Please model this.
Amino acid sequence: MTFNHREEHVDDHMLLVQANLDDMNPEWMTYVMDKLFDAGANDVYMVPIIMKRGRPGIMLNVLVDEERLSAIEEIIFSETTTLGIRYLHASCHRLAREFERVETPWGLLTVKVGYHAGKLVQYAPEFKECEQVARMHEVPLKMVYEEVRLLFLQQQRQKNALPL
Model:
C-alpha cells in the first residue's frame, strides 16, 4: 500500500467487512491478515466473541476501499471458514501524515507524525525500526521507543513547532 496522506481528508468510499469465525484454527489468522493487507486492506483486526450456544469465536474486521472489495472477499471466503460476510459503509477521517527522521544514539529513526487542521496532534516512532534497534543493540524495546519520542519532541521544540 502506498503512503498517500499528506493532506487531512475524509475517505467516503470505504467498507468495513466483517466475518464471524467459530470453527477455525486461530493460528491461521496472521496468515489471513497478511494476505488481506497484501490485497489492499487499509486495516485488519480481530475481536474475540462468544457466538450462539456459547461457542468462542473471532470476528474478523477488514477496512477496505470499495474498489478492492472483490479481492478481499476472495481471501475471506477461500482462507477462512466463514459462510457469510457483512458490509458496513464507512467514512474515514484521516489526519495529514508525514514521516520525520530523528537522530538517535542508534542512528536515524523514523517517526510517523499526524496533523489535524495543520497542528501536530499525534506522533509515534516506527515500531519495526525500534524493534530492530532493540534486538541489534540488546536494549529494552521500551527504552528505544521512549528515547525516539523524547528526541522527536526536542527536535520539534527546536523548530518552534511545539510550545515549551
Q: What stands out?
A: The CA atoms of residues 11 and 45 lie 19 Å apart.
